[in-house]
UniProtKB/TrEMBL annotation, chains A, B:
SUPFAM superfamilies: ALDH-like
Molecular function as annotated in GO: histidinol dehydrogenase activity
Similarity remark: Belongs to the histidinol dehydrogenase family.
Binding note for cofactor: Binds 1 zinc ion per subunit.
Catalysed transformations (reactions): L-histidinol + 2 NAD(+) + H2O = L-histidine + 2 NADH + 3 H(+)
Top EC class of this enzyme: oxidoreductase
The gene coding this protein: hisD
Protein name stated in the entry: Histidinol dehydrogenase
Binding site for Zn(2+): Q254, H257, D356, H415
UniProt entry keywords in alphabetical sequence: Amino-acid biosynthesis, Histidine biosynthesis, Metal-binding, NAD, Oxidoreductase, Zinc
Entry binding sites for NAD(+): Y124, Q186, N209
Cofactor(s) this protein cannot do without: Zn(2+)
Pathway: Amino-acid biosynthesis; L-histidine biosynthesis; L-histidine from 5-phospho-alpha-D-ribose 1-diphosphate: step 9/9
Length: 428, 428
């Protein structure tokens, strides 16, 4: 773990390689997959699943029997924990519901905004060795609360053709019964354009590897997507009130995600930085995923020593981290200074894994500096709005001359004609 | 103008060429431009502006003198109309403001969502022969209401190096004083990555031609964009209460935008369809932009005869039009059946140009079927949210076992460690 000054870090941020997008190398493969799925439909999906997941499928769909089997395979302690997490996530996301509204500015004029849920949503859940039941909750619950009628999940099968039982149990718990055994760019293509088995959706959400992310960029526009997610990140701002062992544990929890995950600490003193560094070394040795953690910490981990909190917050806003922990005195009083962060965790007892699984706010968060313009996944991602405009005959006649003036300025005389005809031929 | 049955139209929709994305041919040029702007900065902008806009620039920025000059060049009737439009747009968009909020579910637990305006926004305004002061209002006002501190405009200059005076006056009226004389993909690249003169922004909004749209797709992810806009569309649902001359005028107002604009009418009887068709022919002959209109109507215009309103609404929801006019009895009672449309205009006196310029709702709307998942531009496009999570020591200890269970199921044991350390070493 490198310790650097704020100035050294600022110089590092200036290096364009810090944010350079190197994913164009994937394009050849990803575009080839999308093309074949659009052309061959299910056949292409079955072929790619055999090639990439080493699973020979007879059916792309998880069966009722497989759902039943999954219930018997999971740890008995899992279901109560899952149910509590679900309740917490529902409670938070219920507060995000939006209403249609209208206003009557003047007699004869009604304006408004109609809120309509998306019709069909596809949720991508990563597979492979790991299980992600928490992503099932985080992606499905806000869609359900928004009122989306049709929600399907795609996830890559294991080589035996089965889907992870924890994913199945979580899906059943949130009321999703349609799960397709497809992963990678091929799953994104199927959701975007449809095949014989998989219906085209309006929006694709959920995390995934680099192929999935790149495929989402390509289908974007033909279908909506949640975001293009990069590696996970944490930034912990720590002052002298932060226990170094807590700070270290939280940094390491992000580092274990994968080698490209980034864990950054901004400490207000050099002494604290050294203590945290020592704790990181001590705890790493005891952790199961030590190899991944060491690579992540060596490549992307850093402790920046800031002269004060003002400097620390400037650095935070420049990084725009996915997860931000404020382990400082009066953390909540300082939230006002944070402009860019996906989620903000306050105090010494709000570690980031609390948000990953349990507290209620969504764990799908903007990465790679995109918190400068993007938000956590929410109910607002599963609705869209339509404007409503209603003018009476009197109202349009009153406004006619001004509208015609602007239309003529823009050279759009047929626009002017559409207004003028209502003035000149009012009783048509 | 072709008249077809609902069945004939359904078959046409099945033809994949209807939605096929043909813009990949632009990629070579657009990526070349982006690469050069990233490499050469202002020099590239000046070079491309000379090449594409035939303007030799000494400065990329509109000067104070040019703003002053513009005030003297505009039609005196324009300013009052602009001011009224501005007031209407502000009034509507003020209703879209969102607040930060928090909840205390239980003692020791605080969750919330912080709303923060974007820091810097770039607005693209098309240039060429036409002027688009209305786009200045529609793109800048919601950003201002959201609280965006830095808003800049880029627009291609005329060959004499000047920017259209109506654009300048509108910009000044909404408080934007930084206008760059750059258009096309080069403007999008400059806003996305920055040059010596143009600062990198968090989000790019505004309409543009095919190069602009494609460049926006490419920079998406490095920067936020509003949408990838396609040609303009109108869909008018007309029953026997709709005056055929009004319907025709409104269809033609969309057709004049450009040859690829689409004007579709869904009529509830064949007689009405014939009357509208006749009116279209009659009015087209009298319109200034007759040539564009004829091409648009011949290539993309159609009148679909539906057997009843239920069938008409099914077709509307399938098309998901940018603009929808309901020129039917009890229009407002039928809004409930519309799921997919950018803006919905009710009755015989709410023609689409009213929304383009004046009524208040935004005229930047989802095109090309994207109203199935996208919304009009709004204040919500210029803010982003951060989740807030705060647990007390007691609260995290109560939840610890359940969080650890889920973390272990996902195989993320360092996550479990970050929770466990707060349980086992509570007084660290």
């Amino acid at each position: 773990m490198n310790i650097l000054t704020a100035e050294q870090f600022a110089n590092e941020m200036k290096d364009p390689s810090f944010t350079m997008n190197n994913e164009q190398a994937l394009d050849h493969t990803v575009l080839e997959i999308i093309k074949h799925v659009r052309k061959d439909g299910d056949d292409a999906l079955i072929r790619y699943t055999e090639k990439f997941d080493r699973a020979k499928l007879n059916s792309l769909t998880v069966s009722e029997d497989e759902f039943k089997e999954a219930r018997e395979l999971v740890d008995p302690a899992f279901l109560p924990a899952l149910k509590q997490a679900k309740e917490n996530i529902e409670s938070f996301h219920n507060a995000q519901k939006e209403q249609s509204w209208f206003m009557n500015k003047e007699p004869g004029i009604m304006l408004g905004q109609k809120v309509t849920p998306l019709d069909k949503v596809g949720v991508y859940i990563p597979g492979g060795k790991a299980a992600y039941p928490s992503s099932v909750l985080m992606d499905v619950i806000p869609a359900k609360i928004a009122g989306v009628k049709k929600i399907v999940i795609t996830t890559p099968p294991q080589p035996n053709g089965k889907v992870n039982p924890y994913v199945l149990v979580a899906a059943e718990e949130v009321g999703v019964h349609t799960i397709y055994k497809v992963g990678g760019a091929q799953a994104i293509a199927a959701l975007a354009y449809g095949t014989e088995t998989i219906e085209k959706v309006a929006k694709i959400v959920g995390p995934g590897n680099a192929y999935v992310a790149r495929a989402k960029k390509w289908v974007y526009g033909d279908v909506a997507i949640d975001m293009i997610a990069g590696p996970s990140e944490i930034c912990v701002v720590a002052d002298e009130t932060a226990p170094p062992n807590y700070v270290a544990a939280d940094l390491l929890s992000q580092a274990e995600h994968d080698e490209s995950a980034s864990a950054i600490c901004i400490a207000t003193s050099n002494t604290l930085a050294e203590q945290i560094k020592l704790e990181i070394e001590k705890q790493t040795a005891t952790l199961e995923r030590k190899e991944i953690i060491e690579q992540s910490i060596n490549q992307h981990g850093k402790i920046i020593v800031a002269s004060d909190l003002t400097e620390a917050f400037t650095i935070v806003n420049e990084i725009a981290p996915e997860h931000l922990q404020l382990m400082i005195k009066n953390a909540s009083d300082n939230v006002q200074f944070i402009e860019n962060a996906g989620a903000i965790f306050l105090g010494n007892y709000s570690p980031e894994p609390l948000g990953d699984y349990f507290a209620g706010p969504n764990h799908t968060l903007p990465t790679n500096g995109t918190a400068k313009f993007a938000s956590p996944l929410g109910v607002y991602d599963f609705i869209k709005k339509s404007s409503i405009i209603s003018y009476s005959k009197d109202a349009i006649q009153d406004a006619a001359d001004q509208i015609i003036t602007i239309a003529n300025v823009e050279g759009l005389t047929a626009h002017a004609n559409s207004i003028r005809i209502r003035k000149d031929e009012p009783n048509a």
